Amino acid sequence: MFRAAAPGQLRRAASLLRFQSTLVIAEHADDSLAPITLNTITAATRLGGEVSCLVAGTKCDKRN
């Protein structure tokens, strides 16, 4: 039913993990991020790999 993975397949799978990444698109409305953004970033980090976040919306460049 199950077959053992060949060593070459394991090496290939391990090398693909280096390229695993997640892009989170965060919605910014006036002075804050949408509440779901933190949940999404948390879920992305649990997947493993690199997490990038793109913030889009109104007044994104505002600094205090």
Defining key terms:
elongated; 3-stranded mixed sheet; 64 residues; alpha+beta
Estimate the mean pLDDT confidence: 77
Main sheet properties:
3 strands, mixed
Radius of gyration: 18 Å
Which structural class should the secondary elements be placed in? alpha+beta
How far apart, in Å, are the first and last alpha carbons? 61 Å
Shape: elongated
Tell me the series of helices and strands, N- to C-terminal.
HEEHE
Per DSSP, the total helix count is 2
Q: How many strands appear in the DSSP assignment?
A: 3
Helix coverage percent: 25-40%
What is the spatial order of strands in the main beta sheet? 2-1-3
Give the SSE layout:
Elements: H1 7-17, E1 21-29, E2 32-33, H2 36-47, E3 50-57
Parallel strand pairs: 1-3
Antiparallel strand pairs: 1-2
